[in-house]
Known about the structure:
Layout: E1 2-10, H1 14-27, E2 32-43, E3 47-56, H2 58-71, E4 75-81, H3 87-91, E5 97-103, E6 106-116, E7 119-127
Helix pairs in contact: 1-2
Amino acid sequence: MASTDNFGVEAGMGNRSIEWMNTYSKEKNMNFNARLGGYQVSTKNFGNFEIIAWNGNWSDARKIIIKSSSKLSMKIIESGYHEKDNLLLSFFGLGKEFAKVYKKGNYIGSVVLGMRSGKWYVKSEKLG
Length: 128
């Protein structure tokens, strides 16, 4: 069972999105549970995002976070992508983590995340 904090939801939508995602996962018998991570990341092109922590099945998590973007008409960050050659560095928090940004279920760009003091921050971003 995976557990991580590498998804984000549009600032101001945290509680509503967590409630929707957890309810949806129970209705569909998916292995997923989310909670607010307690901090935000800021981007220049996409706005601010509340980080969410989750545990459960990785593929269920990806499906639910993207579906929440379209159902709640919000922007989300779907992270967890790594360069193959830097997987070991990523394991120790030294590498880059790539994330896709969606708005209303449609891909609009990407961000590269880094970690500092146990929290994600945006290293760079690119419009889709």
